[in-house]
Amino acid sequence: MYAFTYQKPTTIAAAVAALGADADAKPVSGGQTLIPTLKQRLAAPTALVDLAKIPELAGITVAGDTLTIGAMTRHATVADSADVKRLIPALAALAEGIGDPQVRNRGTIGGSIANNDPAADYPAGCLGLGATIVTNRRELAADAFFTGMFSTALDDGELVTAVKFTKPKRAAYVKFPNPASRYAIVGVFVAETAGGIRVAVTGAGAGVFRATALEAALASKGFAAASLDGVAVSADGLNSDIHASAEYRAHLITVMAKRAVAAAG
Amino acid sequence: MQVSVSLTVNGKAVTAAVEPRTLLVQLLREHLELTGTHVGCDTSQCGACVVHVDGASAKSCTLLAVQCDGTSITTIEGLAKDGVLHPMQEAFREHHGLQCGFCTPGMVMSAVDLLQHNAKPSETEIREWLEGNICRCTGYHNIVKAVQHAAQQMGG
Ligand SMILES: Cc1cc2nc3c(=O)[nH]c(=O)nc-3n(C[C@H](O)[C@H](O)[C@H](O)COP(=O)(O)OP(=O)(O)OC[C@H]3O[C@@H](n4cnc5c(N)ncnc54)[C@H](O)[C@@H]3O)c2cc1C
Ligand code: FES
Ligand code: FES
User: Which of residues 4-33 of A touch B (CB under 8 A)?
Assistant: First the structure.
């Protein structure tokens, strides 16, 4: 690891000021992506600004059908939360399926979506549920937030502070995990929301995306696994690597989507 | 540049001067000479380095010592009490839950955390929980048996 300085502010304003003062400073939340990256010398920030001691970023609150999850909330906390299980059980199950218990004890929702790994789980949950990403400056629809491989609409020095979810009518997430890393080879989040049926896919492409052909089939033929029979997803632009070819991933998308629709009930 | 961190390690107050880039596992092994916690990979995947931070299992190779300022850490050296092995350690011994022993400290620390969440885990739940602990020797069979035995001994 290259050397860096370290600070642990206790307010969002102080964290934003620290990041603003140094263009090469980086926030650290759970560190479950950033620290391995630093160890491989793939990044060389001059300063780390630790968000762990900022009370405004922690915790889960419920107002009516809206669930707000603070950016510093750990995956294990979301997985165990009675509020999340009651309002959006599919989201609790998604968090429970991330990595392993030690990663879940440290990793956070804010870090995961800011990082936007093309195979990460939370981006699929946020896009599938049509979540709102709250930053220190603005609120963004998930559709506008995730912009491609490891990239988001966040500006330099802008922090994710929370994610707001609205309870869907029904939802489920099913992933086909890489057996070594547990990241998704393909993961599909399906939700029937007030705004329509949404199908979000992670692991298959350069970044999370909506499978519009599957959404259309479910909307026109009804929310049932059989509605997806024979609906193929194009392999164009999908990832091909030692784990799976683009054609195999395309096939898996429909299979995982069917399983998710069945699981959503 | 060095900074000062204060934490509790196996019940003892510790203050150390570290660089911000010092990993928790380096603080434990190199500064405090607690070499029971192992490092088996560079990719945060093997779990040989698992310790408890404020009671929750975490990979000490993927945590900075400065992030742990003010916390209470338990390592494999902190499990035995008055020279008597922890029931999980005893169960690994009894059921031959190790061969070379390299993964064992992390396995034991992870398994102890499992029983804090789930006093009576099924075989499947044990295997799923140990997802982040890799063993290249045993084939896991006796590790699972050891955890089941410890759960019984501990009254689950
Ligand atoms: C062995 C292993 C297995 C894993 N398996 C999975 C898996 O199956 N599925 C999955 O989805 N993930 C997986 N992960 C990744 C894990 O979920 C990470 O915790 C997560 O991707 C990043 O969250 P973090 O809080 O650790 O972020 P950090 O590592 O602290 O930060 C990640 C990036 O986001 C930036 N950042 C952090 N917080 C904020 C914020 N609030 N606002 C703006 N920028 C911010 C940081 O500067 C950094 O660039 C795995 C990780 C490991 C080590
Ligand atoms: S040394 Fe392998 S996970 Fe920490
Ligand atoms: S006993 Fe050798 S790695 Fe597990």
Answer: 4-6, 8, 28, 31-32
